[in-house]
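Q: Hi! First time doing this. I have a protein sequence and I read that you can turn it into a structure. Is that right? Here it is:
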Amino acid sequence: MFKTFREEIRSVMARDPAARSWVEVVVCYPGFHASMLHRASSWLWRHHFYLLGRALSQLARILTGIEIHPGAKIGRGFFVDHGMGVVIGQTAELGSNVTLYHDVTLGGVSPAVESDSQRNQKRHPTLEDDVIVGSGAQILGPIIIGAGARVGANAVVTKDVPPHTTVVGIPARAVVRARGEESGEFAPYGTPLGDLPDPVARALEGLMDQVTSLKTRIDELESQVEDMGASCGGVGFDPDEIDSREAGPKVGRS
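A: Yes, that's right. Below is the predicted 3D structure, encoded as structure tokens:
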């Protein structure tokens, strides 16, 4: 127990430069309080004291603003920075050194019509070691977030994320790895060093490039048609004349 206590304090001080001493962490950090209370409620849950486990987790929610179901499995070095609004569901699994920021949800999706059929099913995500989840992110369903992955702020993730990959947006899409990810440097709020490209903006830029290329090609073809008309004795190409011919003579009653 004391070993876990020390590891939790070290994990907070390693990832939050605002933490000046272990006393400050113990007294002032709701993420630390929530983690310690979850260890106790999880012990009660594993030993079939379900009501007591839930009651303790609800007390932790009232005191810290962080709701962690006692059935969730959380590894060593867990850190919730700022806390408040974090929700972790029953079948969620977190590896070692996972970092969450405020308003993060690790939730389940698509419940069955009969709730009994969901009781023993995996409904919540799995976060492997060293994952960082930015504030406001929603990770939903029994998906896997690979080791070292980063989830950007306010992202909505409903599909597996490969290891050491940064995802952003709604729905979340992978972006190019940024400097520092491979070296394992800590990225606050799931935002890595360097530029973070927007995958939607990149797709739009690609479409605009294609439109520009097609417009250039059309201009070339129109120029070639005009040159062919001039070489045939000045017979031009009048779109208005063709439209009038296709329409045909108007038939009216006299």
